[in-house]
Amino acid sequence: MSPSVLEVDGLHKAFGGVQAVKDVSFALSAGELLAMIGPNGAGKSTCFNMLNGQLVPDSGVVRLDGRDIVGLSPRAIWRLGVGRTFQITATFASLSVRENVQMALYSHAGQLGRMLARFGTAKKEEADSLLAQVGMLDQAERSCGVLAYGDLKRVELAMALANSPRLLLMDEPTAGMAPRERVALMELTARLARAQKIAILFTEHDMDVVFGQADHVIVLDRGRLIAGGRPEDVRNNADVRAVYLGSMH
Amino acid sequence: MLTRNRLLTAASALVALSFVAPAMAQEPIKLGEINSYKVFAAFLDPYKKGMELAVEETNAAGGVLGRKIEVVSRDDNGNPADAVRAAEELLSREKVAFLIGTFPSNVGLAVADFAKQKKTLFIAGEPLTDKIVWDQGNAYTFRLRPSTYMQTAMLVPEAAKLHKKRWAIVYPNYEYGQSATAAFKKLLKEKQPDVEFVAEQATPLGKIDAGAVVQALADAKPDAIFSSLFGPDLAKFVRAGSERGVFKNVAVFDLLGGEPEYLDPLKDEAPVGWYVTGYPWQDLKTPEHTKFFNAYKAKFHDYPRLGSIVGYSTVMSAVAAIKKAGSLDQDKLVAAMANLQVSTPFGPVTFRAIDHQSTMGAFVGRIGVQDGKGIMTDWRFIDGKDALPSDTDVKKMRPAN
Amino acid sequence: MTFPSFFIQLLNGLTDASSLFLVSAGLSLIFGVTRIVNFAHGSLYMLGLYVAYSLIQALGRSPFGFWTGVILAALVVGVVGVVIEVLVLRRIYRAPELFQLLATFAIVLVVKDAALYLWGSEDLVGPRAPGLAMAVDILGKRMPAYDLLLIAIGPVMLGLLWLLLQRTRWGALVRAATQDREMVGALGVDQAKLFTSVFFVGAMLAGLGGALQIPREPANLDLDLSVIADAFVVTVVGGLGSLPGALLAAILIGVAKAMCIGVGTVRLPGFEVDFSRLVLVVEFVIMGVVLVLRPYGLLGKPPAVARAAASVPPPLRSPRWQTALVWIALLLAAPLVSDDYFAALLIDIACFALFAVSLHFIMGPAGMISFGHAAYFGLGAYAGAVLLKRAGLPMEAAFLLAPFVAAAFALLYGWFCVRLSGVYLAMLTLAFAQITWSIVFQWDSLTSGSNGMIGIWPAAWLSGKTAYYYLAIVCCGLGIAFLWRVLFSPFGYTLRAGRDSPLRAEVIGINVRGFQWMAFVLAGAMAGVAGTVFAFSKGSISPSATSISQSTDGLVMVLLGGVETLTGPVVGAGLFTWLRDVLARETDYWRAVFGLIILAIVVLFPQGLVGGLKALFGRWQERNA
């Protein structure tokens, strides 16, 4: 097995008196798709936010390619090659779809500080090829402020890919999409992961997507990791069935 | 043939006449006037009326150089930069003969400097700053009103007479108040070397914290107080001080407190016994003043304030300068201003050649109350020429030009 | 200070605090619910004094007449607030943020002239409070009884307001709206009615604050602006939307002022400090310190996480080069066909255009509102003057170096400012601007103090009006072109990105604060260029160049033209400068006319003039397509 891109060891986070994340450990290697599932409030987003530096864990270690990244800012973690999409999308509403992706490309190239170059001309082809990958090229000129929710998810993915990432953190990447679109998008994601050796951690409510695409699945319940392994093992795990998959069909 | 020639001659004459005619019915001489009408409305409303009266009287007497005069006024919003733009407009659009007016010191100085740059005469009516004729004086600028220094100097002999040892001072925190305070301390110290200044309060203009200031002054246990407050600050100071009994057994001087603009709003609360400079319009019976007073009252159905005197006298000074120069040439006008004699409601004044300051004086007296209104009592007129420093001192202060 | 003096000064401070609190409470309520920066709040206070004066005059100076007059005056001012809300503000709630400030600015102008018309220019000294005109002995000193009553009124009003907010349905709605404005709309509450009632209460409090001052302060026409800054400072220092915070801040500021006065001149070996001279700036120093240490004021809470912005600013469009060429040609040809005055007016417009564009640069694309942009304009101007007159540099050198001084100060001030956001950021810029102003205003040996500096004329080869005109047009034109160019560069896009979504910007590796800081410096430098060009065109410079009113003028220019367009600030600057110049010449009541024109523009074009015209043009094109 290839060495892990991401290693998480003993992650803890409490808000006030509430333990949001308790002793979570897992690892993820290049080209692998890991799904994190669990009911609402299980601590998935908190976990994600600790991985990309938006929250600092109370204790525990997060290693990216063997380097401890706890305490680094989100922007430093981005520079180490981590891309992120959000449960509630965050894009630049007054910019067009292409310009959003160009922003990420400029940032990746370290060229944001240029004051006299024209923004629009450079990195146009690169942006368009990323948009083509996620199926948004035909909407490249539209303003992000007017896009449908599912389309915004795709833009976020394209922006994350612009970083040539080692690791992609995708919080509910297919929310707001039709079932067939979801599968298509995750198949695309999986292809990219394998081709470019990107490690992908994602959360998802659609179990067809989870069990169809993920290489491994981990299950979070009330902040605690209760199961992990290959999708079919998790599906058959008694604990998982008890606390979570009871509602599964 | 003959007829045709005659016709031609007549036609040419007509054409010639049509060119000459406008020259005979001459355009009025325009005076460019700039002031902060909206910002200092309480003073400048009467000021404007004074100017109107002067224009009316001048034109009724046939104008000057055979032409009528007209004042073209601009509001500078109390802002020097706006004043300079207005000055530019008056000179290049309105083609005014020269500039007059201005109220706050910073506007006065800015316009004075502009006049110097444009080599144009400027008669500053009201700005009180000493600098406009001394430290920062220039060849083209003249000032009518007695300055901060002069009015302070008029009060100092009264102060020295009282032999009060401990003085407290309160002043609005800007150029006028600072200069008044500096002049007062210097002049009183000269006359009464044992004087002690026990407290000093600089208050933001228009925003005095009257209770606290009055208390701080009282805590220093002064025998006398010198104030250069005016307007709303003065009214608040008077009320806070009398409520707290601070003025009991303390001699109080207020530099401008006798000017109707600032005295009248106090009504029956006018602080009796304060030493002030001002304008006792009720009791001033000199022929010049009576004539002015009656004309003003007849035209506006109101009594004149000090602003009316300044507005009136500023225009009259401008008219006298044109008359004496006999032309609108700037050099001749400036030359005419030196030692120019002008008759004002306060009597004759002279614009001094040495520093371009007029010798207009002021009335020094004490505040009294009559029929529920503040008045000046025991007043006397002090000629401006007696309140100025020696020529040697003036020369030292004024840059050579 | 002895203990009795200290105690009396404490009481003096508390008296002022009470009045400050009343005005600020109203402002805080209105802002909390409607998010309107009500610049006209000081005008409502001023009206309170004038109306109370007239009412007491009519009702007689008995205790009945006095208190009826005070209460009626508060109600009358409340009704004026309602009229303002219904006639003007209700029409523009959907306009871009801060646009309402433009409307309230216009209302200030109209109210001021209306007061001048109705009550005349003379200060009106009101009656003393009947039955309370005597003084009370405290520790051997005398304290007016009425002042003691005022000290009590502040906390009592806080208590009443607290009951109103905690115990009534109306109060619950106000609290909900203050927390989350959209939620109230979602709850199915009639928002218009709520806003109107809040305006009534807020205006009434301002009116009451004014009316209660009748025995202590003459009614005069300068009260509006002198009160508004204080009220904003108290509101922000206390924490927006927090009434106990407002009282605490009012006490802090009131007492600090009284103590500065009480301490007076302190002589130390070698030098003396006159604390009374600090009074004009102490509240801004306090605000600066509080905001640096506590970014949401003393008792304020960080705003709830902002939802997706209610209105997304439209993308910027760069001007067409053909249009730009026409303008450049016209401007270059102007001196051939005009006189000196026209050139002077165009120079002023050019300076203000660059000033407004630099303000727009941080306000629009970078999303940082500044209430203190005049600091950099004034610093540029003063730096030019000081380098020329005090350092004896040649004019050309002073002219070139001055903007760097402005930039250096922007670097310093900006470092603190970019750590805040929204109105707090705006108020911190104001604090720095006022501190700068007070130093310029009082440092006689360097800046000539309140008189300002004169003799700042260009070198001989530039002194002709035409020569200087070209210099001004070129400098300001290049400055504007530079800032516009930057807006379409990666740097400019990064600013917009940081404004649109700080979260997204951060996770794609953007140091948002760093970019905002650099934007602040660029804008400061360009405002400095505008100030330098301005100073040398006038030959003089005075502290008003760094004043609040200069900052406000800049804001008004930007909003008038349209904050969401690129050319708006230029059009706004031109219109503002030209209109004021023309109106001041044509009519005595020019402020009222100016205000009414702005109100008309506000109501007709809620996106600003350029934005509105563009929308009109777009509709016209659609219809003809």
Task: Describe the protein's architecture and organization.
The complex is a heterotrimer of chains A (249), B (401) and C (625). In chain A, 35% of the residues lie in helices and 25% in strands. By secondary structure, chain A is α/β, with parallel strands linked by helices. Chain A has a 6-stranded mixed beta sheet with strand order 6-7-8-3-9-10, sandwiched between helices. In chain A, strands 2-1-4-5 form a 4-stranded antiparallel beta sheet, with helices on one face. In chain A, strand 1 (4-15) and strand 2 form a beta hairpin. In chain A, helix 3 packs across helix 4 (124-134), helix 3 (97-109) packs parallel to helix 5 (149-161) and helix 4 crosses helix 5. Chain B has 401 residues and is an alpha/beta fold. Chain B folds into 2 domains: 29-147 and 285-361, Rossmann fold (3-Layer(aba) Sandwich), CATH 3.40.50.2300; 149-283 and 363-387, 3-Layer(aba) Sandwich (Rossmann fold). Chain B is 44% helix and 20% strand. In chain B, the strands form 3 sheets. Chain B has a 7-stranded mixed beta sheet with strand order 7-6-8-9-10-13-14, with helices on both faces. A 5-stranded parallel beta sheet of chain B has the order 2-1-3-4-5, with helices on both faces. Chain B has a two-stranded antiparallel sheet with strand order 11-12. The model of chain B is unreliable at 15-24 (pLDDT under 50). Chain C has 2 domains: 3-293, no CATH class; 334-624, Orthogonal Bundle (ABC transporter involved in vitamin B12 uptake, BtuC), CATH 1.10.3470. Chain C contains 25 helices and 6 strands. In chain C, helix 15 (395-417) crosses helix 16. Chain C is globular. The chains are: A alpha/beta (249), B alpha/beta (401), C mainly alpha (625). Chains in contact: A-C, B-C. At the B-C interface, helix 2, helix 3, helix 4, strand 7 and helix 7 of B face helix 1, strand 2, helix 10, helix 13 and strand 6 of C.
Question: How would you describe this structure in keywords?
Answer:
heterotrimer; B: alpha/beta; Rossmann fold; 2 domains; seven-stranded mixed β-sheet; 13 helices; 20% strand; C: 625 residues; mainly alpha; ABC transporter involved in vitamin B12 uptake, BtuC; two-stranded antiparallel sheet; 25 helices; globular
What's the arrangement of secondary structure elements?
The complex is a heterotrimer of chains A (249), B (401) and C (625).
Chain A: E1 4-15, E2 18-29, E3 33-37, H1 44-51, E4 59-64, E5 67-68, H2 74-79, E6 82-85, H3 97-109, H4 124-134, H5 149-161, E7 167-171, H6 179-196, E8 199-203, H7 207-213, E9 216-221, E10 224-229, H8 231-236, H9 238-243
Parallel strand pairs in A: 3-8, 3-9, 6-7, 7-8
Antiparallel strand pairs in A: 1-2, 1-4, 4-5, 9-10
Helix pairs in contact in A: 3-4, 3-5, 4-5, 6-7
Chain B: H1 2-24, E1 29-35, H2 41-60, E2 69-75, H3 80-92, E3 98-101, H4 105-118, E4 122-124, E5 141-143, H5 148-162, E6 166-172, H6 175-191, E7 196-203, H7 210-219, E8 224-227, H8 231-243, E9 251-258, H9 260-263, E10 275-278, H10 287-300, H11 306-325, H12 330-337, E11 341-344, E12 347-350, E13 362-370, E14 373-382, H13 391-397
Parallel strand pairs in B: 1-2, 1-3, 3-4, 4-5, 6-7, 6-8, 8-9, 9-10
Antiparallel strand pairs in B: 10-13, 11-12, 13-14
Helix pairs in contact in B: 2-11, 3-4, 5-6, 7-8, 11-12
Chain C: H1 3-34, H2 41-59, H3 63-87, H4 99-119, E1 135-138, E2 141-144, H5 145-167, H6 169-179, H7 181-186, H8 191-211, H9 223-238, H10 243-263, E3 265-268, E4 271-274, H11 282-293, H12 321-337, H13 340-363, H14 374-389, H15 395-417, H16 422-442, H17 444-447, E5 453-456, H18 465-487, H19 490-500, H20 502-507, H21 512-538, E6 539-541, H22 548-561, H23 568-586, H24 590-604, H25 608-624
Antiparallel strand pairs in C: 1-2, 3-4, 5-6
Helix pairs in contact in C: 1-5, 1-6, 1-8, 1-9, 1-10, 2-3, 2-4, 2-8, 2-9, 3-8, 4-22, 4-24, 5-6, 9-10, 9-11, 11-16, 13-18, 13-21, 13-22, 13-23, 14-15, 14-16, 14-21, 15-16, 15-21, 18-21, 19-21, 22-23, 22-25, 23-24
